[in-house]
Amino acid sequence: MVERERAILVSCGSKLHEWELRSSLEELAGLADTAHAEVLEQVIQFRDRKDRAWLVGKGKAEEIAQLVEDLEADLVIFDQELIPSQIKHLEELIDAKVIDRTQLILDIFAGRAQTKEGRLQVELAQLQYMLPRLVGKRKELSRLGGGIGTRGPGEKKLETDRRHIRRQIDILKHDLEEVRKHRQLHQARRKKQAVTQVSLVGYTNAGKSTLLNQLTESEVLAEDKLFATLDPTSRKLDLSNGQEVLLTDTVGFIRNLPHQLVASFRSTLEQVTEADLLLHVVDASHPESSEQMKVVEEVLEELGAAHIPTLIVFNKVDQMVERSIQEESEEREGNRIMISAFQQSDLERLKAKIEEALYQHDFKGTVSFSVEKGDWISALYRHAEILHSETEDLEISFQYRLPRNKLNSLPRDLQEKMQLRNK
Ligand SMILES: Nc1nc2c(ncn2[C@@H]2O[C@H](COP(=O)(O)OP(=O)(O)OP(=O)(O)O)[C@@H](O)[C@H]2O)c(=O)[nH]1
Ligand SMILES: [Mg+2]
């Protein structure tokens, strides 16, 4: 077993936001653990304004340096993003590696990516994170005196490093585009076959992979770690009405998700935007479940997926303390369900609820046209459920129910006739 790095965690912010700072720091400890670090100490510095040079202020930075020495720490992790000049100052003072939350998350992702696309995406995010930091260092150098000794090989090296990184970024983007085209081809085929797609989304560690496993009897990795899943996995799920849907597991979200990551994962997360239904899985036993839900909603918004019908799945109710409050809210609204992923009867209820949600979001209506439109009639019989039909003179009219994802299986002119195209 590899020796765990010894880490000190630091957070800094206004006393007004103490609660938020503490819970974010708690989460940082979880991230550190996921990255195999041993957390020795957590330090919070309250100040209303961040120090530009030291973030936490020089005095506090000196205290941290002392703490590093006393505890023999290898690593100091800041919960707030560090700007280049802060990294530089802190590294000069502290005899340990200095990183921030974003770097830690990128590092975890790098260790976890399994597929080619996942690896490319993480690498791209890492380089994009590095690039401005190199620029920063260069500026720092030229400001410090300029002239002899500062511009020489050091600056040249940075310049070549930057060029090299830019080139790498271009190559990665190009490779990603290739992988992406390939995947879109698959997706287009899926769409053509009009397979209903249901995607699991939610905060990291909510139980998405566990649910995928339980519902489809598969064995994807699920564990009590943050970001256990990076690459989307799809499995077939049979509903009790005989309908077959494709259930997709996705990467978990977290507050202050590095935006470089959201950007590079956009293409894998496109599967989320293509879904017919989202299952937003929430760890109902987590003290901050409602904040976590908000974060997920924000990321969905950012991805352009906020409009997709969503079923909120409150998971881990077996671990919940205050059950009654949540149950009440469940009764008030129809788009939520409380379950434990380990309870067979709950899984059955969930499947029924998925069926219901898919059904609920189908198109319903009536349409009439000439009986001579043979291709329209057969398309309707093939793809829609005909609730009622009537022929009068040479007009035939249908009362129908059409699954949302079957829309494009109908001839375009029929879609227009049914006035469903822009719904
Ligand atoms: N008690 C209890 N634990 C659960 C339940 N569902 C999942 N878990 C546990 O929660 C932990 C996280 O589960 P995962 O399925 O890996 O969570 P995830 O949402 O896929 O997490 P990421 O992939 O990290 O985003 C695991 O240890 C599961 O065993 C549940 O209903 N009850
Ligand atoms: Mg997972």
TrEMBL record:
Asked whether the keyword Lipid biosynthesis is assigned, the reply is no
* UniProtKB keywords: Cytoplasm, GTP-binding, Magnesium, Metal-binding, Nucleotide-binding
- Tell me where in this chain the Hflx-type G domain is found: 196-362
Residue positions binding GTP: 202-209, 227-231, 249-252, 315-318
Location relative to the cell: Cytoplasm
Q: How does it assemble?
A: Monomer. Associates with the 50S ribosomal subunit.
Q: Which family does it belong to?
A: Belongs to the TRAFAC class OBG-HflX-like GTPase superfamily. HflX GTPase family.
What does the function comment of this entry state? GTPase that associates with the 50S ribosomal subunit and may have a role during protein synthesis or ribosome biogenesis.
**Which protein, by its recorded name, is this?**
GTPase HflX
Annotated organism of origin? Baia soyae
Its encoding gene is what? hflX
